[in-house]
Amino acid sequence: MRLGLIGLGRIGAFHAQTLTDLEQVGSLVVADAAPGVTAEVAARLGAEPADSPEKLLAAGVDGVLIAAATDAHPALLRAAVDAGLPVFCEKPLAAGLADARATADAVRGAPVQIGYPRRFDAGFLAVRGAVAAGELGRVHTVRSTTLDPAPPPRAYLAGSGGLFRDCTVHDLDAVRWVTGQEITEVYAAGADRGDPMFGELGDIDAASLLLTMADGTIGVISNSRYNARGYDVRLEVHGAADSAAAGLDDGLPIRPLGPGALAPAGPAHAFFMDRLASAFRAELAAFTELVAGTRPSPCTVDDALAVAVAAEAATVSLREHRPVRTDEIA
Hints:
Residues 124-241 form the GFO/IDH/MocA-like oxidoreductase domain. By secondary structure, the chain is of the alpha/beta class. The protein contains 13 helices and 13 strands.
């Protein structure tokens, strides 16, 4: 099939390589706001360059992937859907909740997949399966962790929507997806103790969230932009009958201390490109199935909107120093 990819920054360039390696993809058309970037990626991967998103959408593609900056997602997503194309759009739907709601309303019912790769990680899938099968009994606690090894560039942060919308949303989606429960209340604490750019941008560099799920399950989320040992993505689910975890592999960037403690064999995961490489490949392979019409969307705009509501609740909670129910936001 012939696919188009709009946005060739950090994640877009990574997706371009992954798509090129998928046997389902016969040709790839790429576009970026920077013409030089478009030309470089096209030449390196043997893709076809397009001068603009409009030209890409008119280039006879079977589906389109959107990996542009967050604030460009709504317009590009609507344009692709209006062109009658199946769409993969990186998270989040939009930088703000109002735009996310409007975008979801505009494209609901169209074949749209939102990019949450942990849904395709083998460990996360296994934990979700164990929960769904009742192997853990009554689930009482779920813990999700995302620790970046270093902050992203200032230019990226400025358009990211902030820690909750850029990073925490992966944990919010994972907790909601693995438990099968909606998030009903959020209490958030955050810190800005690193680079001055976080405060200047009205952002934070570390956060912890306490969630209440619809059935009373407690969720705990930990995030940081500073984890020098490596990229740490984990999930733990604790039930009355058993406990299970994902991400406790040899690349876990942690140094166990104490008698008998066993250190991971290493090397530690450096970033999402290596920690989630297989998940990204499976995610984009799933999109080719959506394009072919052989499967429904594995992550819908309504899934992304539920996460956006929870992220907004976290934002309000941090600002007002109180628990915030998601129905206050929704």
